[in-house]
Amino acid sequence: MSNLAIETKALGVWFGKNHAVHNVTLEIPVNRITAIIGPSGCGKSTLLRCFNRMNDLIPTAQVEGVVLLNGENIYERDVDVSQVRRRVGMVFQKPNPFPKSIYENVAFGLRIEGVNSKSEFDSIVRRSLESAALWDEVKDRLNDSAIDLSGGQQQRLCIARALAVDPEVILMDEPCSALDPQATAKIEQLMGELKESYTVVIVTHNMQQAARVSDRTAFMYLGELQEYGPTQQVFENPKNELTERYITGKFG
């Protein structure tokens, strides 16, 4: 098995005539946290959404190039997109629990997959909540509405929901931007634990967060990948003058 979870080759994205991502070639290693940073509107989230074909949901979107998920091109014609999205989970900027119980939120994807054993549901729900560092806080109220949880708990519930179907990769699009510092710290700690079992790719506008949690950092600007490398090197000794100017706050 390759030590790369995701590999892109000459990846480009258009929305109508807007060329949003230009010719990105990138290698994302297995069981590492890769951060994508850059100013607003630079193509970070669009790039991230290529990894589970979420851009397909936008009628004007066109993608060219190759995205390999553990060696398989997910943009081949015969690929089952729902399977891609099962293998590559997504956690969004704003927590988006379903208006159902905590238990049913986590079990949702399992029901779609055809799981119907109560004992299997129970064990996977528990394991997913434990993996998302939420079990101890909610184990006595699994039938309560997920909407009643705090923002940070809701976001960890969304992570548990993504984990329940046993993905290979977890994408996080600004997962802490709607959270307070305490909830953010919990999510950051959780990311470090998740990389033991999963590959994590995070888009963040918070450079301190990227520096704290990621192993590798990609800097995007105007739809182009400007620099990519080990996080420490990108932050302390960037090769590209544009990267240095962004990291030192000269623009952004």
Protein described:
- The model has no long low-confidence stretch (mean pLDDT 96).
- Helix 4 crosses helix 6 (151-164).
- The protein has helices at residues 44-50, 81-87, 102-112, 118-131, 135-138, 151-164, 181-194, 207-213, 231-236, 241-247, and strands at residues 4-15, 18-29, 33-37, 61-69, 72-73, 88-91, 169-173, 199-203, 216-221, 224-230.
- The protein has a domain at 4-96 and 169-247: P-loop containing nucleotide triphosphate hydrolases (Rossmann fold, 3-Layer(aba) Sandwich), CATH 3.40.50.
- It is built from ten helices and ten strands.
- The chain is an alpha/beta fold.
Offer a few descriptive terms.
single chain; 252 residues; alpha/beta; Rossmann fold; 6-stranded mixed beta sheet; 4-stranded antiparallel beta sheet; 10 strands; 36% helix; globular
